[in-house]
Write a structure and sequence with these properties.
The complex is a heterodimer.
Chain A lengths: L2 H6 L24 H15 L2 H11 L5 H5 L3 H4 L6 H16 L1 H9 L7 H10 L8 H5 L6 H14 L5 H12 L10 H19 L14 E4 L3 H5 L1 H13 L6 E2 L11 H4 L1 H17 L4 E4 L3 H14 L7 E3 H10 L4 E2 L7 E4 L13 H10 L2 E3 L24 H8 L1 H10 L3 E3 L3 H13 L5 E3 L1 H8 E2 L6 H12 L1
Parallel strand pairs in A: 1-2, 1-3, 3-4, 6-7, 6-8, 8-9
Antiparallel strand pairs in A: 5-10
Helix pairs in contact in A: 3-6, 6-7, 6-10, 12-14, 14-23, 16-17, 18-19
Chain B lengths: L1 H8 L1 H29 L2 H4 L2 H9 L13 H20 L1 H10 L9 H24 L1 H6 L2 H21 L8 H18 L7 H9 L1 H4 L6 H10 L6
Helix pairs in contact in B: 1-2, 1-10, 2-10, 5-7, 7-9, 9-10
The chains are: A alpha/beta, B mainly alpha.
């Protein structure tokens, strides 16, 4: 791709009074953003614990440029504004000038740095050019967490009402709307979908499994990204098949008051993060459930796994990702996967939130190797994996589609192409959406699937049609 | 000149060294206080094993040689060996540590010290060159990033010149005075500049602790700005 194309993809930030934002914003603030930004920043410093971190970072960040070569966005654009350390220093400069003694002292005696409207424009652009993949953090010799600082910057901006409309509208529906989920899926639609999934499974396997809804005192309360109910039925069917085959059908349930694992608060707001977690925990408490089982979703898993112990009260519910559950079933021989049916070459995409920022790297690989004959890894992989380009909530912002394709996802597309894989497993709702768009954009002959979509093809359930029969049936249908 | 050197070696050394120690101590106390005092029980949730394992990978950072900064990283790593070993273990410095700090360190040979010093000087020049010539590095550099390299350069250059009369254009006394004063300037700057990473490097690494957000803080921020009825 040529340079011009890339720069054409840059969102325009005009400096005129009529400010143009790179993404849609509800009721954009025009007046007095500087004062309001500082007011919000100081409220955050007063009530939260970020001060120590900012003190430490703004004294010691080395500006060594190692983060630049780790950043999949900078590697594509070559624009200094995309260097993680540059972005972090935008916020650190403000902190240093307005909230430290040294900065105050310096401002008395010299024309030091001042926060201007232009800097706010710069921030609202670059903070949302980052996918919060935290690859730079691993390569920072000081350990500066650019992801956390970018998130803090977004948090402050969100408090002065500068936040992509797509994220804000979803969170509002989740917290204040009637459906309590980001995609506005009403309870009736959920029940219809579950009925549809039951029928599909019956067609496919020859077994009727009615989904357990609102059952109390179950071991697992299941949450997935609510969009999966609309867009990824096969993943959910795979999840159901594993639970059924393992004999755990009466140990799990889906709640109808809250069935959305998505938590955009993880990307931009402490306030929303906590309230969404509480909502999730309330639902588990209502159903008197024991633990939280999160479907194939990266950031939902991370936010529940990391924040339920903090915001979830005195005896927080344990949190498990579905892949951990499946691996456990495989290890204990509770389910059987047919090693003959998957003949395509398969690769695995590590979602940043559960690999680099989480705890899931080897588990899905162990599952895949147990039944896939031709499995290849991407390079780099695991904790060093490149982001799909849609992380940090970016995938939900439709108006930056071109940026996500031509810039943020470009290295991922290259990586995918190099594996020569026919199927790429991406166990994350965000990654799946972004990667599906990427393979279309770059014409890559690769199918993007969830891990349980593939398991659904290979699982052997006693009394059901065998995996081989199902494969033949599917082939007939395609003809 | 002699009495100037005596002052620089005596009270001035003690004073600047004390400033450095107290300044660094202040930074450590602030960090420990805010971690223990404000994070409290959240500290137990933090993935300490992961934090320490990650910190250890940076002791000999071979795993962090990534394409694009390999030479830069190797040089800055070796540079750190030079700036730690020579000031601490050179025979002439050990005397000072014994007198002011009360610890006796083993001495390294003069050949090794000379080699390390020359290497450190060369490394500083290369790091400086990188900062000037590499566009992405220049774009993010601020004045302090340049002048600190020069401040570190001075004590090494003057120390080498003072101990090698053949490369010393001025008198030994003048060079030694410059050596002492530049080192003392460095002492003063350490706690107030990015050189403070000699103690802060660990506190920078605990970002996983800072991800343990304080329950209720988000609500209080929203309430302070928009009142109790704050909406998304």
């Amino acid at each position: 791709m040529e340079r011009e194309n890339i720069s054409a993809a840059r969102p325009v930030v005009s400096k005129t009074a009529e400010r143009k934002y790179p993404y849609y914003i509800e009721n954009p603030v025009i007046e007095n953003r500087v004062d309001r930004f500082l007011e919000a920043f100081s409220a955050i410093l007063q009530f939260t614990d970020y001060r120590a971190l900012l003190d430490s970072y703004c004294t010691s960040n080395a500006k060594c440029n190692r983060c630049a070569v780790a950043c999949p966005i900078y590697l594509v654009t070559g624009d200094p504004r995309d260097i993680p350390c540059y972005r972090t220093n935008l916020l650190l400069d403000i902190y240093r000038r307005y909230f430290t003694i040294g900065g105050w002292f310096k401002s008395r005696f010299s024309d030091s740095f001042e926060l201007t409207e232009d800097i706010i424009d710069d921030m609202l652009d670059v903070f949302y050019r980052c996918t919060a993949c935290r690859r730079c953090t691993r390569e920072c010799p000081m350990g500066v967490d650019h992801g956390l600082i970018t998130r803090l910057g977004r948090y402050i901006l969100s408090l002065i009402n500068i936040v992509p409309k797509a994220l804000q509208v979803s969170v509002r529906e989740q917290l204040e709307g009637e459906t309590h989920n980001t995609s506005k899926v009403p309870k009736e639609a959920l029940l219809n979908t579950l009925e549809f999934l039951t029928e599909e499974l019956e067609d496919m396997l020859g077994i009727k499994m009615a989904f357990p809804v609102d059952c109390e005192r179950r071991d697992f309360v299941f949450f997935c990204a609510v969009s999966d109910y609309l867009m990824e039925p096969e993943t959910l069917m795979g999840n159901a098949a594993v639970l059924y085959a393992a004999g755990d059908w009466d140990r799990w349930t889906i709640g109808t008051c809250n069935y959305d694992g998505i938590n955009y608060g993880l990307f931009y707001s402490d306030w929303h993060l906590e309230r969404i977690i509480q909502q999730l925990v309330n639902e588990v408490d209502r159903l008197k459930g024991k633990s939280i089982l999160i479907g194939e979703c990266g950031h939902a898993s991370r936010s529940a796994h990391d924040f339920v112990p903090i915001f979830g009260g005195r005896n927080p519910h344990p949190v498990m990702n579905f892949m951990e559950y499946t691996l456990d079933c495989i290890r204990r021989n509770r389910i059987t996967l047919n090693g003959e049916v998957i003949t395509e070459r398969v690769t695995y995409h590590d979602p940043c939130n559960i690999a680099r920022s989480g705890w899931i790297v080897d588990q899905p690989r162990e599952i895949l190797r147990s039944f896939v004959r031709d499995y290849v890894d991407m390079t780099p992989m695991g904790e060093n994996n490149y982001c799909c380009g849609g992380g940090g909530g970016l995938v939900s912002i439709d108006e930056i589609h071109e940026f996500r394709m031509s810039v943020a996802g470009r290295l991922k597309a290259d990586q995918l192409l190099q594996t020569g894989a026919d199927i790429c497993i991406a166990p994350c709702a965000n990654c799946k959406k972004q990667l599906k768009e990427l393979v279309e954009y770059y014409h890559i002959p690769c199918k993007i699937m969830g891990l349980h979509d593939l398991i659904l093809q290979a699982i052997e359930i006693p009394g059901a049609k065998t995996a081989r029969e199902r494969k033949e049936e599917a082939a007939l249908l395609e003809m | 000149m002699e009495q100037w050197i005596d002052i620089a070696k005596g009270p001035l050394f003690a004073l600047t060294f004390l400033i450095m120690v107290l300044g660094l101590l202040r930074l450590v106390i602030i960090q420990v206080y805010s971690l223990l005092g404000r994070k409290g029980r959240l500290l137990r949730n933090a993935p300490w094993r992961k934090i320490f394992a990650d910190a250890l990978t940076w002791v000999v950072p071979v795993r962090h040689l990534i394409p694009g900064t390999k030479l830069f990283s190797v040089i800055s790593f070796l540079f750190h060996i030079g700036i730690l070993v020579v000031p601490l273990f050179l025979a002439d410095h050990i005397v000072l540590w014994e007198r002011f700090v009360g610890v006796s360190l083993p001495a390294i040979g003069y050949t090794l010290a000379d080699t390390l010093t020359l290497f450190t000087l060369a490394a500083l020049a290369v790091l400086f060159g990188y900062r000037v010539l590499l566009p992405r590095l220049r774009a993010m550099s601020q004045p302090a990033d340049y002048y600190l390299l020069m401040v570190i350069f001075m004590p090494f250059a003057t120390g080498y010149a003072a101990s090698h009369p053949s490369v010393n254009p001025i008198s030994w006394e003048a060079m030694m005075l410059m050596h002492l004063l530049s080192a003392e300037l460095l002492f003063i700057l350490i706690p107030f500049t990015k050189l403070a990473h000699i103690v802060l490097f660990f506190f920078d690494r605990v970002s996983a602790v800072h991800w343990q957000l304080r329950p209720g803080a988000g609500d209080r921020v929203a309430e302070a700005l928009y009142g109790r009825e704050a909406k998304v």
